[in-house]
């Protein structure tokens, strides 16, 4: 399998490139970046890995899959271009600005017959895997409430366009984890907070999900909170488990 990477900022360099280069049998085929500094970073980090100015040039060099790790505003066009070029796509989350755009991308991939997936790496966080194991082993009994929160104090993150706001950026992980654990959702309630009346990107969110199986998930996040809630709290008739702080991901690879 030949894999290419589009974007070599923080996400591309420290998350995606390290994973691509470590997969047995895979070839790190190249990186798309126009920045001279980042081209040099690629040369220093991965001698021999080619760099390209455009996605089309990367695909022409021969790849089976491309990973899109650019700011949110540019992802839609790049995903559509990759789909049209006929290669599989893995996109950073969130891969769309809204539900309508997400449907557009999914439908484009279906029409072209190519794979489109989203990089949901926090399914492999060690604390999440521990919660999942406790639930699977019925250690807490039938779960009634799942609480998940990512809170930090980072004023510089307020209004940061590259992530699309806290709900889209980190909240997408929490929603994904809740769906993995408890399945489809029947009802949704949400709240967003903004730093100013004209601010378009949220800094704090709360989402309540009522799953089809009866579990209620309370998901929250903020980049203006210096007294964070537990990362996880899971309640059942046999007991409650809670964890605090962020975690590292286990060294576990996704199937191709």
From TrEMBL:
InterPro entries: Gfo/Idh/MocA-like_OxRdtase_N, Gfo/Idh/MocA_oxidoreduct, GFO_IDH_MocA-like_dom, NAD(P)-bd_dom_sf. Residues 2-119 form the Gfo/Idh/MocA-like oxidoreductase N-terminal domain. The keyword Membrane does not apply. The keyword Lipid biosynthesis does not apply. GO terms for molecular function: nucleotide binding; oxidoreductase activity. It holds the Pfam family GFO_IDH_MocA_C3. Belongs to the Gfo/Idh/MocA family. This is Uncharacterized protein. The lineage of its organism: Bacteria, Pseudomonadati, Pseudomonadota, Gammaproteobacteria, Pseudomonadales.
């Amino acid at each position: 399998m030949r894999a290419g990477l589009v974007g070599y900022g923080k996400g591309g360099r420290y998350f995606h490139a390290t994973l691509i280069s470590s997969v047995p049998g895979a070839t790190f085929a190249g990186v798309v970046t126009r920045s001279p500094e980042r081209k040099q970073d690629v040369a220093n980090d991965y001698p021999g890995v080619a760099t390209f100015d455009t996605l089309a040039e990367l695909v022409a060099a021969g790849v089976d899959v491309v990973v899109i790790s650019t700011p949110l505003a540019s992802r839609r066009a790049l995903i559509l271009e990759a789909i049209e070029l006929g290669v599989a796509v893995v996109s950073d989350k969130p891969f769309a600005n809204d539900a309508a755009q997400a449907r557009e991308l999914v439908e484009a991939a279906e029409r072209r017959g190519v794979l489109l997936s989203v990089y949901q790496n926090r399914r492999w966080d060690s604390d999440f895997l521990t919660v999942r194991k406790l639930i699977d082993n019925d250690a807490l009994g039938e779960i009634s409430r799942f609480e998940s929160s990512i809170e930090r104090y980072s004023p510089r993150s307020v209004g940061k366009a590259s992530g699309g706001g806290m709900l889209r950026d980190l909240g997408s992980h929490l929603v994904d984890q809740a769906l993995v654990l408890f399945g489809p959702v029947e009802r949704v309630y949400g709240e967003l907070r903004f730093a100013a009346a004209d601010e378009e990107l949220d800094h704090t969110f709360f989402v309540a999900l009522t799953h089809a199986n009866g579990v209620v998930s309370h998901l929250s996040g903020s980049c203006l909170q210096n007294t964070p809630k537990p990362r996880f709290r899971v309640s059942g008739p046999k007991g409650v488990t809670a964890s605090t702080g962020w975690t590292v991901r286990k060294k576990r690879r996704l199937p191709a």
